[in-house]
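Changelog-adjacent note: as of this version, every example in the card shows the full chain rather than a window. The one below runs 375 residues end to end.
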Amino acid sequence: MSNQREMVQVVQRLWQDLVARGLVHAPPAPAQARAPWAVRLLMGAAGWLGAIFFLAFLLGSLFVAARDSGVAMALCGAAMIALAAVLYRSRTGIALEQFALAVSLSGQNLLAFGAGQVYGGTRLLETAAFWIALALLEAVLYALVRNRLHRFLCALGVWSGAAVALQLAMMPDLRHAWEWTALSLVWLAPLALALLAGFTWAEGRLCAAGRHGWLEPAADATLLFALGAALVVTGLGTPYTFLFDAETARRATPYWMAGALCGAVLAAFVLAESGRLRLAGPIRAAAVAGAVLFGALLAGAPAVVAAALALGLALRRGSLPWLGLAVAALAGGFIWYYGALHWTLLIKSATLAGAGLAVLALRAGLQRAGARSSS
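Full-length structure tokens:
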């Protein structure tokens, strides 16, 4: 614990030094020494246990008393969200924060369920307006509640609501169109990756302006959504087998378009990073050409291209969580892609070997170009 306090003091002194030099103008974020992970785990479990008993009593009595009143359920959900916001403001400990999280999530579900009962029941789920309203609710909660984990989940809710709403807007005549959300993910996954690249490039300015802490949970959620969306689009032949007609879904989804768009974002990132690092012209051209070739060869596997971009963003930021997500998505993307292809094992092995040789050749070429430019 003493080492953590010393680290906090060192960080504060470094920030004050940056302020004195005029490099930053915002006050440092309040830093506190964190309790050991075992203590945080037990306190969080205690908070969820208390929330389960509280919600079991509250929701049980509510459904018995007002099971036919959607207005009462919606009002109760709004009251629970307000209670969670007040509890978050108090900042009295891990257990209370987890209790507030459980209350907030239950309140959001209750509010959505009550609104559905008032405005048409299950038919409301088939309208884009409902999911847009849900995304807006999550965005408002993101701005109002300052807890990092709560903001992360709210940002995921915004992306999920936007995906279903876009799908329903694209296919308004198809019943249960939300089951075909992969069509909207084709466009949202590259958009999320482009936003992540913009966040990474502007991260220094955001820190200096004091807005980095406000936006970072949204960036984390955007990365998780982008990689998950790319995995779903890539492996339609695998997950859809258990729920829907896999072949029909794969033919109806332009997953090649998703891969091409992700490849374009990857190439733009490589071009921008080459300029930032002031690489020599031949090396810059080779790097961009390699990114374009990589995106073109793996356009049918958007998850692999998205994971490669996420890997670059993680290394650019020095973020171990982002790096772990990128590596996991890279492995999952390759597995899903080659599992969905109707190729023989020999052809798949030859393709992997050829891709590996191409990467090694590109690496050797870049090393030789770097040696010539330095000499």
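Structural remarks: The first helix runs from residue 2 to 21.
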